[in-house]
Specification:
By secondary structure, the protein is mainly alpha-helical. It has two domains: 80 residues; 47 residues, no CATH class. The chain is built from five helices and two strands. Strands 1-2 form a two-stranded antiparallel sheet.
Length: 156
Amino acid sequence: MTAKRNNEGKPRLSLIPRAIQVEMAKVLGFGEGKYSLHNWRGGGKKLTAHYLMDSADRHIVDYLAGEDLDEESGLHNLGHAACNIAFLLELLADGKLIDDRYKPLKSSHLRMIPKGVDLNSVRHYTNGTIEYQMKDIKRKEDGLLRRIYNACFGRG
């Protein structure tokens, strides 16, 4: 009997270069000692898209400035950058990422906003929610703004 495998269309994880796996494992081991094992998986206020990208960027900038190793850990700066990007992707896939990126409204979205709704009241911030700048927003407008937000940014 021959074993059957259906791997068609599945990602080939064996294609990931060994060097990045090793460097990320070193950084994750350092992080386990400094924080705790898998502490980043919980997400939370600090693990926003900006926080993770800022950290990755700092390590990339240090590397580009000729600093191969991180000053604190003594590990490769690109391993640190790779971990931050991996955290970003994993939290995004798990729905735990606080997406605090700036996303301007497109002109096509502006046509959806009825007359009389203050454009300054349609402003989003972290965690895919809407912050209202108007003090006394009515319930009817609340639902309307959420529908506009969902149409513009695809979540609610």
